[in-house]
Amino acid sequence: MPFFVYGTLRPGEANHAAFLRGRTAAEEPARLPGAELYDGPGYPYAVRHPGAHVVGELITAAPGAYGALLAELDRLEEYHGPGLPRNLYDRVRCDALRPDGSRTAAWVYLAAPPLARRLRESGIRIPGGDWLSR
């Protein structure tokens, strides 16, 4: 399953170079419907929000790279397992939209619930859901 990335893992950003360069089979523009983006600062958080969308890319791991890449991204995003209270992000399966409108399942790192509540209450929303346009 591909990854939907929307912040520092996007092409041209620091974590793309550190974690993804040379380890992908495909990278294509996409959108994540039903989510909005908040400034970290320094990196963004996606939070579920009906009617909004987040701009990013679908990243498909190169053959043989998937398992190691998944583990490294989980560490980067401070994801320790489903529903664990120390998660900064939760890795969830979501549908991403390609430019032609087709949907594809993808892993997405969303702000964990306690953080998502704080962001909705007092976070700085990124208009248009595009980290690169902030």
TrEMBL record:
A Pfam family this chain is assigned to: GGACT
Keywords attached to this entry: Acyltransferase, Transferase
EC number of this enzyme: 2.3.2.-
Gene Ontology molecular-function annotations: acyltransferase activity
UniProt name for this protein: Gamma-glutamylcyclotransferase family protein
EC main group: transferase
CDD domains: GGCT_like
InterPro entries per UniProt: AIG2-like_dom, GGCT-like, GGCT-like_sf
Span of domain Gamma-glutamylcyclotransferase AIG2-like: 3-132
Signal peptide range in chain numbering: none
